[in-house]
Amino acid sequence: MRVLGLLSGTSHDGIDVTVVDFEESDGELRGTVLHEDSVPYAPELRARLVAALPPAPTTFAEVCELDTLIGQAFAEVAASASAAAGGVDAVCTHGQTVFHWVDEGHALGTLQIGQPAWIAERVGAPVVSDVRIRDITAGGHGAPLVSFLDELLLRGRAGVSAAVNLGGIANMTVVGPDGLSAYDIGPANALVDAVVVAEGLNERGYDADAAIARTGTVDDGLLAALLADPYYALAAPKSTGKEHFHLDYVRAHVDRLTGSGRALSVPDLVRTLTELTVRTVAQDVTSAGIRFLAVSGGGCHNPLIMQGLRDALPEVEVVLADELGASVDSKEAILFALIGWCTMHGVAAVTPGGTGAREPRILGTITPGTGPLRMPEPVERVRSLTLG
Q: DSSP E strands: which ranges in the chain?
């Protein structure tokens, strides 16, 4: 079965897509990546999306329009990818997260927009969508869903190993003799991106090649205040997002610092926020006794983050996720292709310990394509995964 995976992450800079051809035999799954791409949002659409995100106020009218416009954008990307791969049998879209509701350590709701019916109409194949909420109803956080893929890729390694994704939010999956745990560590690129956009530092909306951070120095006082955020002390499972870590959060910390008479340049701020990612990831890797760490996501292209992690973790083998068969830029799109295959085959795409759910659940809602909805024969479980 050929499944197309689609998502836009917490950096909300564009749409990642991949097409994976899955073959299954007795629970052993092999996936061949046929196509992968990343398509930036149109600047005006991204600007509207950013303007509507928390903590900014918005309206149901704006949410409705963005749901349609993002759905149409996803549909065009999916149609192009499907044509490039010679057609697909199903699509799985994560959409664009605009709110993740966590209260007193419990996830109560989550909202992803990008209406899947536009994708089903454009591609003609059934579309799996809204994949996080079923896990939340079973007591999970709906995140990090990538723990399902990570566990399959890390399974069988000696000692304690982990995979960390450095998107807008950093999440980590830890696999060891005692089982699996996974959770959101905190901000990876979200805060730096917010400052870059707000200050108009470049047209890309992120600190490419750490060019801005390289010109600044870490402000120890600000870093200490940021590290004191109670979120980092919470026990896993836990999840977070831009509802907590956003531009006003940064500004509040900076105002407290500069109110005491100290000056802070924008490069120093970006450098300090970059160091925050290094420190929070490194301290969790160290406390878990991890010896092998596979890194993916946009943050792995930031040389200050990668070198910072290697310097802070001299006893840990720090590699890119490509070594596990999932490219650093397509890993999450591969995940959603995998979730789509699992849902179509009746397989729960959640690993116990991965999200905090009481029990695994089959994820998502299915929107039929242009023809009759025909489900393949169910598969009991996925025992292994090989990517090529």
A: 2-8, 14-25, 28-40, 90-103, 106-113, 127-129, 161-166, 169-176, 179-187, 292-296, 317-320, 365-367, 384-387
